[in-house]
TrEMBL record:
Top class in the EC scheme: transferase
Keyword Oxidoreductase: no
PROSITE patterns reported in the protein's UniProt record: LGT
Signal peptide stretch: none
Domain of life: Bacteria
Organism: Halopseudomonas laoshanensis
Cellular component GO terms held in the UniProt record: plasma membrane
Name of the encoding gene: lgt
One Pfam assignment: LGT
Keywords from the UniProt entry: Cell membrane, Lipoprotein, Membrane, Transferase, Transmembrane, Transmembrane helix
GO biological process per UniProt: lipoprotein biosynthetic process
Transmembrane segments: 19-36, 56-76, 96-113, 175-193, 199-217, 229-257
Similarity field: Belongs to the Lgt family.
Protein name per UniProt: Phosphatidylglycerol--prolipoprotein diacylglyceryl transferase
Length: 268
């Protein structure tokens, strides 16, 4: 068994102000995606300047944060937030939903594309390879917060998390998700999008791969205590929300290649 590193969730205290690692992970994710997007933007559209890219990053970041928070409330813990609405603003404690964040990003990209004369999936295909940076950073934030841990196991890399009332040795599922949703997904999308693809194909591949990775991770991740398993003694809310992503993503890729799409310029 490995010892949990006991990282203080508060990265820096300045008097009454506390800066949490969880929030810093979001800044790292957004900043990293911004930097990589700036390296690819000329191949995507040479007419775009830094201001245009900054606008896109701003709207996407807003979609991630607002959508992630609202999605968590609606999908995972509506009763608690109805009982105490002030919990909505306590984002440093966690409580973000990827699927809600994705819906927020879709709305943000739709708004941005409409304002800038771009097609929706053109912008989504450009942005998708950068998303895993934020996903990976977010999972590290979950690990530091000692939240969303896995099921009990006797594997040699199991950990006892300080927030676990049962103090069982568990899968460090946050690190599994970091490896899959962050590292592996980034490599897959980055390499795939380095060559011209039909419009919608990159976005579709993101949906397929993320959905599969999340579906698999749910088998070793402890379900939310207030939700438990939704069916058959193993189906979780995360799997219910991920399955449509796999199916829709596969349909998008099939549509893109069957109809030829519009070949995107290489962004390598």
């Amino acid at each position: 068994m490995l010892a949990y590193p006991q990282i203080d969730p508060v990265a820096l205290s300045l008097g009454p102000i506390q800066i949490h690692w969880y929030g810093l992970m979001y800044l790292i994710g957004i900043g990293g995606a911004w930097w990589l997007a700036s390296r690819r933007v000329n191949a995507f559209d040479p007419s775009w300047n830094s201001e245009k890219l900054s606008d896109l990053v701003f709207w996407v970041a807003l979609g991630v944060i607002a959508g992630g928070r609202v999605g968590y409330i609606l999908f995972y813990d509506l009763a608690s937030y109805l009982n105490d609405p002030t919990l909505i603003f306590q984002v440093w404690k966690g409580g973000m939903s990827f699927h809600g964040g994705l819906l927020g990003v879709l709305l943000a990209v739709w708004w941005f594309a409409r304002r800038n004369g771009k097609r929706f999936f053109e912008v989504m295909d450009f942005a998708a390879p950068m998303v895993p940076i934020g996903l990976g950073a977010g999972r590290i934030g979950n690990f530091i917060n000692a939240e969303l841990w896995g099921k009990a196991t006797d594997l040699p890399w199991a950990m006892v998390f300080p927030t676990d009332p049962l103090q069982l040795a568990r899968h460090p599922s946050q690190l599994y998700q970091f490896a899959m949703e962050g590292v592996a997904l980034f490599i897959i999308l980055w390499l795939y999008s380095a060559k011209p693809r039909p419009t919608m194909a990159v976005s579709g591949l993101f949906g397929v791969c993320y959905g599969i990775f999340r579906f698999l991770a749910e088998f070793v991740r402890e379900p939310d205590a207030h939700l438990g398993y939704l069916a058959f003694g193993w189906v979780t809310m995360g799997q219910v929300l991920s399955l449509p992503m796999i199916l829709i993503g596969a349909a998008m890729m099939a549509w893109a290649y069957r109809n030829g799409g519009v070949k995107r310029e290489t962004v390598s």
